[in-house]
């Protein structure tokens, strides 16, 4: 028996080791191909989609280091700029996916490559920023499709931890971070059955919901009390004993005071209404709804509450009798009601498909202009980084890409990407495999 156990442990270690070797090999092959270039660039003769100020035909954008130096039609280009003739091309601000696990998850079946989940229900002190893998194979695959920055967040438990907003270029989390602590992720306790397989009675479902909500409120109230206690000590430390340090409660301080928002993942109509009612009990905090597959059913209520929504389009309708178009129509119906929407795939390796989520939304009611905002400026505004990202404006961070057409169309080619002023190599694991096998030198008979 002991020999069998030792054999199993050895095989398990061997599989894990081989998987890690594979991850390392793929990461090196996909990430370290050629160096990004940095300096001064002049993009000329482009159709510039500024997002914030319309479209500029035959325009010029000057990039100086990390920032955009000039946007317009006439500029004297001084010596020292590398010129890129973009005649017939389109220049867009880099796209943002507002909800992913990119950089946290690599191979789902290999635990040691997954950092998107932690043990326990309440982990506000967990920071995705500290676990980002800059060499993730999925990062180059994503950025060469025009997605230059993302929200990456933990997903387990009730309070999963702090999401981070990162650029998709850099050699360390510090060099990638736009906002290390961008939001706290909350998985809303559901008051409805999970699906046809859920054999709980309605009474049991409601009882479990009330229990989970009570625990959530207890944790939140404790955080409020702890914050007041610490503030009181800071003001009167000569007359009070220093309170015991609690890392989880400390992590809640910037949340309950409204310095960073709470992303509430919620889908069903009933749960959305419950979440809205809960947010109204905490007027000092900021909240964002994510998922909201039933959002179109309660769009007016979401708009009245002033809550922005992070939405996708490529999912199965909530109910068997829902029209297949509902997921595609959801962003447009929310926008029509007055809700600010941003695109969020909720994915890892398929974050590269974020432009097509926006494309479906554009086609099914949101419109191309608003869909473009949903994947650029709206997302930046929701997370408070509109002064850096989301549009092509002087002084903003140079996250841009050049395409030969509409980036919402799968046949469009993304020809060049800039992230924080770096001209990124247009190479990924996908392009390497294509090059390897397109002309593989098969022997002729």
Task: Give the SSE layout.
Blueprint lengths: L1 H30 L8 E10 L5 E10 L2 E6 L9 E4 L4 E4 L1 E6 L37 H6 L3 E6 L6 E9 L5 H4 E11 L14 H34 L11 H10 L5 E5 L2 H11 L7 E5 L7 H7 L3 E3 L14 H12 L3 E3 L10 H13 L1 H7 L2 H6 L17 E4 L10 E6 L2 E3 L4 H10 L7
Parallel strand pairs: 1-4, 1-5, 6-7, 9-10, 10-11, 11-12, 12-13
Antiparallel strand pairs: 1-2, 2-3, 5-14, 7-8, 8-9, 14-15, 15-16
InterPro entries: Amidohydro-rel, Metal-dep_hydrolase_composite, Metal_Hydrolase, Metallo-dep_Hydrolase
Protein name: Amidohydrolase family protein
Organism: Fodinibius salsisoli
What key attributes describe this structure?
8-stranded mixed beta sheet; alpha/beta; Amidohydrolase family protein; Metallo-dep_Hydrolase; 445 residues; Urease, subunit C, domain 1; 16 strands; Metal-dep_hydrolase_composite; 2 domains
What does this structure look like?
Residues 331-414 form the Amidohydrolase-related domain. InterPro entries: Amidohydro-rel, Metal-dep_hydrolase_composite, Metal_Hydrolase, Metallo-dep_Hydrolase. It comes from Fodinibius salsisoli. There is one protein chain. This protein has 445 residues and is α/β, with parallel strands linked by helices. The protein folds into two domains: 26-94 and 390-445, Roll (Urease, subunit C, domain 1), CATH 2.30.40; 95-388, Alpha-Beta Barrel (TIM Barrel), CATH 3.20.20.140. The chain has helices at 2-31, 138-143, 173-176, 202-235, 247-256, 269-279, 299-305, 326-337, 354-366, 368-374, 377-382, 429-438, and strands at 40-49, 55-64, 67-72, 82-85, 90-93, 95-100, 147-152, 159-167, 177-187, 262-266, 287-291, 309-311, 341-343, 400-403, 414-419, 422-424. The strands form two sheets. Strands 1, 2, 3, 4, 5, 14, 15 and 16 form an eight-stranded mixed β-sheet that branches. Strands 6-7-8-9-10-11-12-13 form an eight-stranded mixed β-sheet. The longest helix is centred in the middle third of the chain and has 34 residues, at 202-235. The chain is globular and about 65 Å long. Mean pLDDT is 89; it is low at 23-32.
């Amino acid at each position: 028996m002991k020999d069998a156990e030792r054999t199993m442990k050895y095989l398990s270690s061997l599989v894990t080791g081989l998987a890690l070797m594979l991850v390392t090999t793929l990461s090196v092959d996909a990430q370290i191909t050629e160096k990004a270039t940095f300096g001064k660039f002049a993009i000329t003769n482009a159709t510039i989609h500024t997002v914030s100020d319309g479209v500029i035909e035959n325009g010029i954008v000057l990039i100086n280091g990390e920032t955009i130096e000039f946007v317009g039609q006439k500029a004297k280009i001084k010596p020292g700029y590398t010129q890129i003739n973009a005649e017939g091309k389109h220049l867009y601000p880099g796209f943002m996916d507002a909800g992913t696990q990119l950089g946290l998850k690599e191979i789902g079946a290999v635990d040691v490559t997954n950092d998107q989940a932690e043990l326990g229900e309440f982990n506000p002190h967990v920071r995705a920023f500290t676990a980002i893998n800059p060499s993730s194979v999925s990062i180059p695959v994503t950025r060469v499709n025009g997605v230059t920055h993302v929200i990456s967040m933990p997903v387990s438990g009730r309070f999963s931890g702090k999401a981070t907003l990162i650029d998709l270029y850099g050699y360390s989390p510090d060099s990638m971070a736009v906002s290390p602590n961008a939001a706290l992720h909350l998985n809303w306790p559901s008051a409805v059955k999970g699906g046809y397989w859920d054999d709980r009675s309605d009474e049991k479902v409601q009882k479990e919901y009330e229990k989970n909500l009570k625990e959530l409120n207890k944790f939140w109230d404790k955080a409020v009390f702890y914050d007041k206690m610490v503030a009181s000590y800071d003001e009167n430390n000569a007359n009070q004993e220093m309170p015991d340090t609690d890392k989880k409660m400390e992590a809640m301080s910037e949340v309950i005071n409204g310095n960073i928002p709470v992303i509430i993942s919620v889908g069903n109509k009933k749960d959305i209404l419950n979440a809205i009612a809960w947010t109204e009990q905490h007027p000092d905090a900021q909240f964002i709804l994510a998922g909201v597959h039933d959002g179109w059913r309660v769009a007016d209520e979401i708009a009245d509450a002033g809550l922005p929504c992070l939405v996708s389009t490529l999912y199965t309708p909530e109910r068997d009798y829902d029209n297949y178009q509902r997921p595609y129509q959801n962003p447009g119906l929310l926008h029509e009601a007055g809700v600010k929407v941003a695109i969020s795939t909720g994915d890892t390796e398929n974050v590269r498909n974020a432009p097509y989520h926006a494309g479906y939304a554009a086609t099914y009611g949101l419109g191309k202009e608003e869909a473009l905002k949903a994947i650029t400026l709206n997302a930046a505004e929701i997370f408070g980084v509109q002064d850096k990202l989301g549009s092509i404006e002087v002084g903003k961070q140079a996250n841009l890409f050049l395409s030969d057409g509409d980036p919402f169309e799968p046949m469009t080619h993304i020809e060049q990407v800039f992230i924080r002023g770096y001209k990124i190599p247009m190479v990924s694991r996908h392009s390497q495999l294509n090059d390897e096998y397109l002309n593989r030198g098969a022997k002729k008979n």
